[in-house]
Write a structure and sequence with these properties.
The protein has about 100 residues and is mainly α. The two termini are about 20 Å apart. About 25% of the residues are buried. The protein is about 80% helix and about 0% strand. It has one domain.
Length: about 100
């Protein structure tokens, strides 16, 4: 669970980086982080005590992925990035439905 929290915090801090060239690198890093979160959560055993915390982390990560997608929509190379983010968003939706019953 700490891994998820660290990954989310990293994505949030990267999202507030300086604009310009750093923004493109930041967006690519954020996509990489977003891809790693569902894989990390899938690898964790089901534990009822941590389920609520896991569901909150998944919801927050899903929100961040959607916000990243919105930022990527205006980019010149947006189609490639949007495809990657769409797969991440779909993975979050599937995982959230499986883990959190929603």
């Amino acid at each position: 669970m700490r891994t998820i929290t660290i990954l989310i915090a990293s994505a949030l801090s990267n999202a507030s980086a300086t604009p310009g060239l750093a923004a493109e690198s930041t967006l690519n890093n954020d996509i990489t982080v977003a891809r790693a979160i569902p894989v990390t959560v899938r690898g964790q055993p089901d534990n009822a005590a941590d389920n609520d915390e896991t569901c909150r982390a998944l919801a927050a990560s899903f929100y961040e992925s959607v916000m990243l997608r919105q930022a990527a929509a205006g980019r010149v190379d947006g189609a490639r990035v949007l495809t990657a983010l769409d797969s991440v968003i779909n993975a979050f939706k599937d995982l959230f439905g499986t883990r959190c019953g929603g």
